[in-house]
Amino acid sequence: LFDGRGGSVAARIVEAGKRSVRCEIAGERIQSEPGPRVVLVQCLPRAGKLDDIVRMTTEVGVHTIHLALSEWAVARRAADHKLERLERIAVEAARQAEQAWLPNLTPPRPLSEVLAEAPEAAFRGALLERSETGLPLEIAANEAWLVVGPEGGLSPRDRDEIARAGFQPASLGRSILRTETAAVVGVGMLADRLRRGR
C-alpha cells in the first residue's frame, strides 16, 4: 500500500468483496525520498492525449504537471479535462510503476501565469520544434521545468512569453514529436540528468 507521498507498507489481503478490500498490515512503514523535481508545463492537448501524458510521465517520475492554456491549444475549456479523472489515472500509473510519490496536478491556467511560478534557480526549458539546441547533458539546479506545446504547436505570442520568462528553447532531436511523446521523453531525460547531478 502507498499514500502517494512517499509512504508505503507491505500488506496482505484478508477479504475482497465487490466494493471493498480489507488488508492487514504485514510490515513496517517505509518512507522513500522524493525523486528528481521535474515540473511539466503541458499546454492543453485533446483529452485522450492528456490521459496518456499523465499516465506515462507519472511512470517516469514527474513531480508536478501544470496544465496551461496556450493560444493554439485545441482544447480550450477546463471542463475538457477533469482533474479527478486525471488524478485516478496518476494513481493507477504510480501503482503499476511502483512509484511511491504521486505528481501534483494543477487545473488549466493561462500559460503566462504558469511560467511566472518557475523559480529563478530552476532549469527552465521549452521544447520548440526546429530548435538547434538540445537539453543540457548536465543540470546543476535542483529542479527542472519543461514546457511542451499542444498539437498545434506554440504561437509566436506563446514563444515571446516563454522567452520573457527566461525559458531556454530546446529540442529532442531532428524529428518533430507528438505532444505526448515529447512530454514523456523530455520528462524522462530531465529526471535522469537531475539524478546524475545529485
Question: How would you describe this protein?
Answer:
- With 198 residues, this protein is an alpha/beta fold.
- 31% of the residues lie in helices and 25% in strands.
- The strands form three sheets. Strands 7-6-5-9-8-10 form a six-stranded parallel sheet. Strands 1-4 form a two-stranded antiparallel sheet.
- Strand 6, helix 2 (83-97) and strand 7 (104-110) form a beta-alpha-beta unit.
- Helix 1 runs parallel beside helix 2 (83-97) and helix 1 (47-59) runs parallel beside helix 5.
- It is globular.
- The model has no long low-confidence stretch (mean pLDDT 92).
Q: Helical amount among residues, as a percent range?
A: 25-40%
What is the residue-mean pLDDT, rounded to a whole number?
92
Ends apart, CA distance between termini: 28 Å
How would you characterize the largest beta sheet? Answer: 6 strands, parallel
Q: List the helices and strands in order.
A: EEEEEHEHEHEEHEH
- Assess the beta-strand content as a share of residues: 15-25%
Structural class from helices and strands?
alpha/beta
What radius of gyration results from the CA coordinates?
18 Å
Q: Record the strand order, biggest sheet.
A: 7-6-5-9-8-10
- Contiguous low-pLDDT stretches (5 residues minimum) are none
Globular, elongated, flat, extended or rod-shaped: what is the shape? globular
Number of DSSP helical runs: 5
**Secondary structure tally: strands:** 10
What is the chains' assembly state? single chain
